[in-house]
Amino acid sequence: MFWIYLKIVSDMPNPNLKENKFKRAILVPFRGVVKAISKTWYVKSQYKYITHHKLNLKNPVRYTEKLQYLRLFVYPKNPLISQCAGRAGVREYVNKKGFADKLVPIYGIFDSFKDIDFDKLPDQFVMKCTHACAFNYIWKKKKEIDKKALEKKFNKWLKTNYGKKTVELHYAPIKPQIIIEKYLEENGKLPIEYKIHVFNGKARSMYVVTSRGIDIRYNNYYIDWTPFDGSQFNGWKKTDYPLEKPEHWNDMVEMAEILAKPFPFVRVDLYNINGKIYFSEMTFTPAKGTLILDDDRCDFEMGEWLDIKEFISAK
Fold it and tell me: How many C-beta neighbours within 10 Å does residue 232 have?
């Protein structure tokens, strides 16, 4: 009967993408208070509000539930995870694992915006905060930079405790800095991203991000490159044409598994530009684990791939 219900759900448009904006407006001002009282309560409330599922932390079964468990009780206690979640620290880790040649070249790591000498930078580059997700800017023409506005934005970001703000506490110990990377492009556009999900050391699935900055698309696959459409999440759309497996794909999977070996779960993001593999980042709690999958069954399928019994029994 349960699987019949899941089949009915999977054949319908995802109902969980609807948001009650009135309810959100009422709740948002109280987020800080709830976080201060109980981070577990906050995460449970956030998970229920976004996914419409009750969060089971005593016996997590879903992939998204297990991510919440790791988010709250496991990842904040692991210094290596904090290192690898940071854009500067992870470079040391990738280098130590033998993939120094896969790192994107950088122009420097800076403690403050005022330390940056823009005269020494090329015309195109990427600026990112080391301690957070999505705190970044891409510049294609240096002469168009409004330095005063950019400094204001980065100063605000550098003062933000991202781990505390998002309750992804493995980010909290990361030193806030600015890293400036080489701008990568492929055929005049931002390169395709390959986001490989590794469960207990084994790559199982991934999604491919194309047309970034234009008409972004997400195509989900099992690791053998067969479609995994049900794991499409949060209303994102895929391309209307199939994607080709990149050159040296097996090398990319092997690299992801080597980097992910010490961790129960991590997403390893890579580029492949004309056959040259580049490392992008490692993400331990994608979208804070609050993913709304197109087919609810995929949440259970991926949950079976992720074994966290050792952490639950040790708690």
Answer: 22
Q: Judge whether 55 and 43 are in contact, CB under 8 Å.
A: yes
Pull the structure tokens for residue 49. Answer: 């509000």
Convert the pLDDT of each residue in 93-129 to its tens digit: 999 999 999 999 999 999 999 999 999 999 999 999 9
Q: What is the C-alpha separation between 288 and 68, in angstroms, rounded?
A: 8
Question: Angle formed by the axes of helices 2-10 and 296-305, to 10°?
Answer: 120
Q: What predicted TM-score, i.e. pTM, was given to this entire model?
A: 0.91
Give residue-wise pLDDT tens across range 263-275.
Answer: 999 999 999 999 9
CB 131 within 8 A of CB 177: yes
Q: What share of the chain is helix, strand, coil (3-state, %, to 5)?
A: 45, 20, 35
